[in-house]
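Data deposition worksheet. Section B asks for the primary sequence of the deposited chain exactly as it was used as input, without tags or linkers unless they were present during the calculation. Section C holds the resulting structure in token form. Section D is free text for depositor observations; keep each observation to a single sentence. Incomplete worksheets are returned to the depositor.
Section A, Depositor: J.P.
Section B:
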Amino acid sequence: MISLNQVSVIRHSKKILDNISLDFPKGKMIGLIGPNGAGKSTMMRLISGVIKQTKGKILYQGKKPGTLSHKERACTIGYLPQKAEISWPLSAQRVIALGRLPYQSTFSQWQPKDARAVEDAIIHSDCEKLRHQNILTLSGGELTRVLLARVLAGEPECIIADEPIAALDPFHQLQVLEILKDKALEGKTVIISLHDLNLAYRFCDVLALLDEGQLKAYGDPQHVLTLEHIQSIYQVNMCWLNNESFKALFPISRVI
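Section C:
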């Protein structure tokens, strides 16, 4: 779906991303993990087209970004940024319906398929009770769910979500991850950044471990989330807890 070849991003003489080559395949949920400042948000903004690389090459389904129209890119990629803000006093349903804008034109009319896409997004994101509320009155977690619904309403082939569960309670954290996992199972590319390593291990098909702008490990979660990687990159000693129903990482101490 998306391919990076020796990509670097330099800002104010500092390498934010350093010579990264990485593939984001279809039908997979790819998790970006790493400590604060590792480059995860920059990676999200880069592959969503918000910023451009300083060096290297990016391909969308084998095409260079410059060959895609704004409409093609909007229909292909749905991006949920980490700190999204809405300044207009619209209802949540109106905001979610904005996800259908890439499919509209000057002479086109709202179609039944547009209404279905919006309604499906509202239901899947658990926004039924929020649909008529002023977006400016919502909590951070409620706003996140509405903005995720807007992305889903656009039916993109690739969903990019930067820490989408950070402001959510445990119930909605699991719900959002289940929604995104289902989209991957439908054949879409889902790219998500997470700080919760246990949820990353449980839900992601592939993990990319970043540190100081470099790709340190990429592949199956059990091969990326080794105790050695965690100790050297996160500076934390952890252990695996195992029983019949789950496997989880447990923090023991900081590395000092």
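Section D:
The radius of gyration is 19 Å.
The chain is about 35% helix and 30% strand.
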